[in-house]
Design a protein that fits this description.
It holds the Pfam family Dimerisation. One of its GO terms (molecular function) is O-methyltransferase activity. Strand 7, helix 18 and strand 8 form a beta-alpha-beta unit. The protein folds into two domains: about 110 residues, Orthogonal Bundle (Arc Repressor Mutant, subunit A); about 250 residues, Vaccinia Virus protein VP39 (Rossmann fold, 3-Layer(aba) Sandwich). The N and C termini lie far apart (about 70 Å). Helices cover about 50% and strands about 15% of the residues. The chain is α/β, with parallel strands linked by helices. The protein has a seven-stranded mixed sheet with strand order 6-5-4-7-8-12-11, sandwiched between helices. Strands 1-3-2 form a three-stranded antiparallel sheet. The protein has a two-stranded parallel sheet with strand order 9-10. The longest helix has 21 residues. Bound molecules: S-adenosylmethionine. S-adenosylmethionine (SAM) binds next to helix 13 and helix 15.
Length: about 400
């Protein structure tokens, strides 16, 4: 009986069961993290051994069928429609205002991907079939503490540019520019502000995709009096640092229109931290715009900045940060990014190299970098890499000191 009831038990789990804080996974010892990463790799290897090559290669080549289903489920708001409880196909289609047959065919794939669970309260009656939320679709709800809704939306925005990858590789042109009729990703988003708004929110989701606690467990921000987050977007990283370290003051720096959005977001959602935060805007390419250091106990942070830029541009940005540090050579620079080809995290290498292609599609000569490449960039800009720390996420923490 228990066995028969189990699908209903799964499907009727209370919403709170899925509203767990995934940052708690950071408490697991390193060994578990490595075993988990290896498990993913092992399944891939096992699949390679068992499945015929034609099937494997076609499965990989058609992976975008699946990714588009996830993006569509997210974009239509299916997870949020299921937040209040299970629904039939008819109820869902009505609530979302969409074509019922198409929706249910998409949901059939979503079920295989464990994005929705299905139950039959009246066996044999398809009409009464119920769809409900799962652990995976719960994080596509904006209200989830570790939501990645906007990040998944951003992947959808980036998808069309990937269609120009072949042409880009043939011609050496940036695929995104081919897609956006000559505009860079930044220019395109500035022309279509709703794209930039989603991008900014997606960057906030990075605190969940690469759990922010992974960075704070690896590196102690408690040693500093002020954090200057360069290209800090809406300030998700700086906010987490301020919440973690009560002594810390913050300075957020980004382009003017982003800082305008950030100020609005902070005054509505981050009020308790606001009195420790200040904002300034400009371009990190322009001399004198990156906020200047005022003491030796400050940290300049850059999360996911340098991978958006070519080596030449990265050196220009780093030189502006070095100029902002000036004679306060006790200050540190902390870069939070992926690092390629690191022996420390071999089993999680695949997302980093695909991330490198993502950067190429978006920005051309931008790239993910190896430790040696970061060392070169830093040395060319008046810094020396002092530490490279892995985290229990795709990110590394690179600490550099001015020379
Ligand atoms: C990949 S996002 C990272 C955002 C943030 N560091 C985070 O991790 O949440 C890159 C950021 O660089 C900012 N940016 C792009 N060009 C810039 C420029 N010329 N000057 C200052 N910021 C810039 C973007 O607005 C965006 O917020």
């Amino acid at each position: 009986m228990a066995l028969l009831c189990s699908p209903m038990l799964i499907i009727n789990r209370p919403k709170s069961a899925y509203w767990q804080d995934w940052n708690d996974s950071q408490k697991a010892p390193w060994i578990f993290w490595h075993i988990g990463a290896f498990w993913y790799r092992f399944q891939e290897l096992l699949g390679n051994y068992v499945l015929p090559a034609p099937q494997r290669v076609c499965d990989m080549a058609s992976a975008f069928f699946r990714s588009q289903v996830i993006i569509t489920v997210n974009e239509l708001g299916v997870p949020e429609a299921l937040e209040a409880g299970p629904k039939t196909g008819q109820q869902l289609a009505q609530q979302l205002g969409v074509h019922r047959d198409y929706l249910e065919r998409v949901l059939a794939v979503a079920e295989r991907l464990k994005l929705v669970a299905v139950s039959y309260p009246q066996p044999g009656n398809e009409e009464a079939k119920l769809y409900s939320l799962t652990q995976l679709s719960a994080v596509l709800c904006e209200s989830h503490p570790n939501s990645v809704k906007h990040m998944v939306g951003l992947f959808g925005d980036h998808f069309p540019a990937f269609a120009y990858l072949t042409e880009g590789v043939r011609s050496g042109q940036t695929p995104y520019k081919l897609y956006a009729k000559g505009l860079s990703h930044w220019e395109h988003m500035q022309q279509q502000p709703e794209l930039y708004t989603r991008f900014n929110k997606a960057m906030t989701d990075f605190n969940n995709l690469c759990p922010i606690k992974s960075v704070f467990s690896a590196y102690d921000f408690g040693q500093f009096s002020r954090i200057v987050d360069v290209g800090g977007g809406l300030g998700a990283f700086a906010a987490a640092a301020l919440a973690q370290c009560p002594q810390l003051k913050g300075q957020l720096f980004d382009l003017p229109h982003v800082i305008k959005e950030a100020k609005q977001a902070w005054s509505s959602q981050r009020k308790p931290l606001l009195r420790r935060m200040s904002f300034s805007s400009g371009s990190f390419f322009e001399p004198g715009k990156v906020p200047a250091a005022a003491s030796n106990s400050e940290v300049f942070t850059m999360r996911q900045i340098l991978h958006d830029w070519s080596d030449a541009d990265s050196v220009k940005i780093l030189k502006q940060v070095r100029a902002a540090i000036g004679s306060f050579t006790g200050c540190k620079l902390v870069i939070v990014e992926s690092v390629l080809a690191s022996k420390l995290m071999r089993n999680t290498h695949t997302p980093r190299v695909t991330g490198d292609v993502h950067m190429m599609v978006q920005y051309g000569d931008a790239r993910e970098r190896s430790e040696a490449q970061f060392e070169q960039l830093l040395a060319a800009s008046g810094f020396r890499m002092s530490r490279l720390l892995p985290t229990k996420s795709l990110f590394f923490v690179l600490e550099a000191v001015p020379v």
